[in-house]
Queue: 2 jobs
Job 1
Amino acid sequence: MKPTTPPRTYQVKSFGCQMNVYDGERMAELLAEKGIAPAPDGEEADLVVLNTCHIREKAAEKVYSDIGRLAKAGTETGRKPLIAVAGCVAQAEGEEIMARAPDVSMVVGPQAYHRLPGMIDKAVSGERATDTDMPADAKFAALPPRYSGRRKSAPSAFLTIQEGCDKFCTYCVVPYTRGAEISRPYSQLVDEARKLVEAGAKEITLLGQNVSAWSGEDDKGHPIGMAGLIRALAKLPDLARIRYTTSHPADMDDALIETHGEVEKLMPYLHLPVQSGNDRVLKAMNRSHTAESYLRLLERFRTARPDLALSGDFIVGFPGETEAEFEDTLKIVDEVRYAQAYSFKYSPRPGTPAATMEGQVAKEIMDDRLQRLQARLNRDQLAFNKASVGKTCEVLVERKGKHPGQWLGKSPWLQSVWFKGEAAIGDLVEVELVEAGPNSLQGEI
Ligand code: SAH
Ligand code: SF4
Ligand code: F3S
């Protein structure tokens, strides 16, 4: 590649899960430290970071079309941006990207992005570089502290506390792209949470691929788990709300269940993916729960916190899934009545055991199953929202609406709520919920 002038502006585009978004924010902070400014809206940046996701084929393919578009725009304007591919596709297909996309000058994996600034210097001097080192510990120790006074946090912030996955569900790439489970140390997390709150965060969502597998030691050296961490963070006076995601049913302990009943700042919302309602399929997926054990676990959470809103993830068309097995998934949905859910067609991922299993399900069958499943999930989401009408609750204001005086915020149950009146971003406003739609509610102060 030809040497080029150092970039003055950047854009980070995140395509994946919440942890991918968190990584995107940390990369943006690194670039800001290096004196590179965010590109103004609508302007092409000198440096574009594509922060990619590998979870399903559609997500992964996006990166190549994006690279093509950026390179073409650069040729037309005569100013080609430096392109960095980060995230889980970078980890999984780093070498392929380098070979297939000559316009890319940097490939950096999710556990190596703390070294992005050095890679930019190389790229400016005309050298291409790939860094997909693991594990994650080194990254967190090397990243600069958050929000060193210059920038403000959004009212709702993410905080990665745990990373990686040792569960090896047979369909999933995450154990390969993110590596083994690690827990960030307690003191580092309390410190980062404090910084976020000082920068204006009112709500913190604790993130992990298996967030409830977090473990550590408190200041006195006593071993603690998620429950202990949540209780410690709840003591930060200006932090109003705590959430966490995503959990695996295998890591939910009594202490965490109790915390839902006792810690007021812990919001009444639980995202607990089940994937399928059929035990044969669950076993083939290498999920360690059965439909029955999952339902019993939810019962314990609901006993501790009766108004808990439940959310889940589903995969339809896992290899070998029969119509009757799929109907078991519909059954579990009817039983749980989720307030929110994410459902996907199975996507075979290179290198995972399920990709070569017999009985891959035809696309038309998957389409049909997904439609039927989503019809039920939508029904339940609307019913949950309708049942909230008449309640008064606190809404955390996240942004302005289109109309004058209109605001958008989140209820404790993570519903989007629109309302009008005196407010500011970051306020917690008492709102009466007066009207419900499938994706949002109307409220009145
Ligand atoms: N760690 C979390 C989430 C992982 S990825 C968990 O275990 O629940 C988010 C969701 O993507 C998964 O819950 C699953 O529903 C879906 N997913 C993962 N791999 C997939 C694949 N190969 N095809 C379709 N959906 C997939
Ligand atoms: Fe993937 Fe399973 Fe790990 Fe979740 S628990 S990240 S679905 S392997
Ligand atoms: Fe995607 Fe990686 Fe997250 S594959 S879902 S960005 S962990």
Note: Residues 363-388 form the longest helix (26 residues).
Job 2
Amino acid sequence: MLYSVLAGGKRLRPVLVIAAAEAVGGNRKDVLPFAVAAEYIHTYTLIHDDLPALDNDDLRRGKPTNHKVFGEAIAILAGDALLTQAFYLMTHSGLMGSIPPGKLLQAAHDMTGAIGTSGMIGGQVVDIESEGKPINAETLEYIHIHKTGRLIKACIRAGAILSQAGVDQLESLSSYGEQIGLAFQIVDDILDITADQGLLGKDIGSDAEKEKATYPALYGLDESKKKAEKLVEEGIACLKDFGEEAEPLRSIGRFFTQRAF
Ligand code: GRG
């Protein structure tokens, strides 16, 4: 568990929890355990996604994948344990004493929906079942929104919910999260083709090798880039009623399309 969590990574999901909390007047210290839980959930998906039965990748966060170092059995258990530990943290009212328990429950419940069968796992299942098959734009969008976008959106919603965002604020932040979440996976597809492997820290070219459903495969690189940029623009526009306090969210959105890793 420590090996994969401490291997590095951009920490985007916990940063989004914190940035969303601060955008609605919350405090980063108050939401920190929940933010850590988001990173645990994300790291679990990476460990499992890299397993031989799934993507069978050798490199992650610039290091050999978890199963390459510890074997498959321990990698499976490390992922399971990170997911379990995430729920331990998300519901830990002792560590988040300033947050009303009802808000903790709401954010944890929301997160559960985002990463379960009708969220991330659902997207991952359709992704696996689509390998090597021609798919349409609608199915591709479903895969990307669910396997990647839902967790990103849930992190933003969690920061806002825990910091007692108003209904309109939560609505705007959710829309922002939907747009940038989809953009993030489109850019991930692009980087699998164009990135420098050393900088990216994971295997490149693996999507094409596995005949994965990707935006570049369906639309080409240029059109995919345009789509991601448009989504980020639209996402940032959802923050129009926020002031300076949402500037980190706007910058993160821009980073999603400008990133090289
Ligand atoms: C349940 C067997 C089983 C497997 C689960 C849920 C799952 C596997 C996979 C989720 C889908 C997934 C891994 C999507 C990829 C999301 C993505 C783009 C990850 C890379 O995120 P970055 O770039 O990574 O933020 P770092 O390393 O920077 O944190």
Note: Residues 148 and 185 are 6 Å apart (CA to CA).
